[in-house]
């Protein structure tokens, strides 16, 4: 079992890290794209709110909140789905020849939840940066004019 | 162009140019305007003559390329963006052609939002929102979202939202532009009432019936005021 741990597990961990990083990168791109599309569809509203006197920090806070909500709901939904997926994958992997009976590929550790929450929070904030920049820097008058003409 | 009373906003030699690939385009050229408390000013003219540009400058959402602008005695050009935002929030109300209500909020919440941003207490917000819904005749529609309201009703909510923080000046850009004649007349009637209740109004319009209700009429052409 010790020998299996050292050889196969290091390989398994590396693949797992690569897959996790890719998933995180996709999550970042997805949230950034969704928020950017959402802002682009609401440029008139944002310009109107700015014209009504809502400061840039309010617009930024609202978008950040949207991002946190998106990440939070997604992150919470991912926990049970990820748990079930881990159980299913563990069963499949344990059927490989030569795997010790008592060995598990996926073991729940509380620190994983903390890591999950931290990575998602950082992803959510980073993904919101461009849409926030877009919304807070838009020229109010030009945007209102464009929205009326469109 | 000088009315009686205290000036709310006064612009002198207002010019606005936009850089274009083919060269600078002057949307507004050397326009001077003074709006006093209780004034009701209509700005008319063909499309592209600079009406909305002038309105945006008066509303502190755009900066003139040249000229001076004072709002209640303060030089607007010397203010920070945050200070201009505060003026817009508390002293100026905006009504847009396309209403721009937040679609996920009810009529009540749309009217309450600027008060909340201005720091009004919950009790004050509740009282003011109820008062405004009654003022625009939409008490029974308070929990309806914009998608459940007609164009005229949406514009009435937008007017109530613009009045939420008791502004000194109400600016309206083609407020009847998306409405039929009868509904437009109702909105114009509401503006009369707002003006009678002591708020200065500047309205940009193509609608002669709306312009006729104003106490002063500025006609614009090619970025300049041709008659006042």
Question: How does this model look, in words?
Answer:
The complex is a heterodimer of chains A (150) and B (228). Chain A has one domain. The model of chain A has no long low-confidence stretch (mean pLDDT 87). Chain A is mostly helical and 150 residues long. Helix content of chain B is 35%, strand content 27%. Chain B has 228 residues and is of the alpha/beta class. Chain B has seven helices and ten strands. Chain B is globular and about 50 Å long. The termini of chain B are close together. Chain B has a single domain, classed as Rossmann fold, CATH 3.40.50. In chain B, the strands form two sheets. A six-stranded mixed β-sheet of chain B has the order 6-7-8-3-9-10, sandwiched between helices. Chain B has a four-stranded antiparallel β-sheet with strand order 2-1-4-5, with helices on one face. At the A-B interface, helix 2 and helix 5 of A face helix 1, helix 2 and helix 3 of B.
Itemize the secondary structure elements and their pairings:
The complex is a heterodimer of chains A (150) and B (228).
Chain A: H1 2-41, H2 43-51, H3 56-94, H4 110-136, H5 140-149
Helix pairs in contact in A: 1-4, 2-5, 3-4
Chain B: E1 7-18, E2 25-36, E3 40-44, H1 51-58, E4 66-71, E5 74-75, H2 81-90, E6 92-95, H3 107-118, H4 122-135, H5 151-163, E7 169-173, H6 181-196, E8 200-204, H7 208-213, E9 216-221, E10 224-227
Parallel strand pairs in B: 3-8, 3-9, 6-7, 7-8
Antiparallel strand pairs in B: 1-2, 1-4, 4-5, 9-10
Helix pairs in contact in B: 3-4, 3-5, 4-5, 5-6
Specify Rg of chain B, calculated over alpha carbons: 17 Å
Determine the fraction of residues in helical runs of chain B and give it as a percent range. 25-40%
Main sheet characteristics of chain A: none
Straight-line N-to-C gap of chain A: 68 Å
CATH topology of chain B: Rossmann fold
Q: Count the strands of chain A?
A: 0
End-to-end distance of chain B, in Å?
6 Å
What share of the residues of chain A does DSSP label as strand, in percent? Answer: under 5%
Total helical segments of chain A: 5
Give the total of domains of chain B.
1
Can you identify the CATH superfamily of chain B?
Answer: P-loop containing nucleotide triphosphate hydrolases
Overall 3D form of chain B: globular
What is the ordering of alpha helices and beta strands of chain A?
HHHHH
- Name the poorly predicted regions of chain B: none
Order of the strands making up the biggest sheet of chain B: 6-7-8-3-9-10
Overall body shape of chain A:
rod-shaped
Helix content of chain A: over 70%
Mean pLDDT of chain B: 94
């Amino acid at each position: 079992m010790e020998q299996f741990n050292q050889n196969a597990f290091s390989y398994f961990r590396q693949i797992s890290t690569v897959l996790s990083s890719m998933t995180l990168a996709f999550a970042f791109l997805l949230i950034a794209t969704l928020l950017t599309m959402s802002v682009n569809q609401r440029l008139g509203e944002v310009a109107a709110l700015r014209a009504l006197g809502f400061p840039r920090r309010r617009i930024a806070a609202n978008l950040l909140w949207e991002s946190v909500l998106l990440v939070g709901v997604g992150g919470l939904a991912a926990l049970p789905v990820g748990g079930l997926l881990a159980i299913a994958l563990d069963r499949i992997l344990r059927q490989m020849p030569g795997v010790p009976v008592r060995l598990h590929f996926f073991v729940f550790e509380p620190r994983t939840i903390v890591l999950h929450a931290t990575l998602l929070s950082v992803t959510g904030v980073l993904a919101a940066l461009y849409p926030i920049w877009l919304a807070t820097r838009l020229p109010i008058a030009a945007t209102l004019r464009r929205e009326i003409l469109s | 162009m000088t009315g009686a009373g205290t000036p709310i906003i006064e612009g002198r030699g207002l010019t606005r140019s936009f850089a274009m690939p083919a060269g600078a385009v002057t949307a507004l050229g050397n326009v001077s305007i003074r709006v006093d408390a209780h004034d009701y000013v209509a700005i008319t003219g063909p499309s592209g003559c600079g009406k909305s540009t002038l309105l945006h400058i008066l509303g502190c959402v755009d900066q003139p390329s040249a000229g001076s602008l004072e709002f209640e005695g303060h030089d607007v050009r010397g203010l920070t963006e945050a200070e201009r935002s505060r003026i817009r929030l508390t002293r100026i109300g905006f009504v847009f052609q396309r209403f721009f209500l937040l679609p996920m909020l009810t009529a009540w919440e749309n009217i309450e939002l600027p008060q909340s941003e201005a720091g009004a207490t919950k009790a004050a917000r509740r009282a003011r929102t109820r008062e405004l819904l009654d003022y625009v005749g939409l008490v029974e529609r308070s929990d309806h979202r914009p998608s459940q309201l007609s164009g005229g009703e949406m514009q009435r909510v937008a007017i109530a939202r613009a009045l939420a923080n008791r502004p000194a000046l109400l600016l309206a850009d083609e407020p009847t532009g998306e409405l039929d004649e009868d509904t437009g007349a109702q909105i114009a009637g509401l503006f009369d009432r707002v003006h009678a209740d002591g708020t200065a109004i500047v309205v940009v319009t193509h609608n002669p019936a709306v312009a006729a209700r104003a106490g002063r009429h500025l006609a614009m052409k090619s970025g300049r005021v041709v008659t006042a």
